[in-house]
Amino acid sequence: MDESVYVGNAGVDGADNGGWLLGHFMPPGLDPRHSADVEVKWGVHPPGDTRAEWVTGERRTALLVLVSGRFHVELRDRTVVLAKPGDYVIWGPGVDHSWLAPEEAVVLTVRWPSVAGYKVVPR
Question: Which GO molecular function entries does the Swiss-Prot or TrEMBL record give (predicted)?
Answer without folding.
Answer: isomerase activity
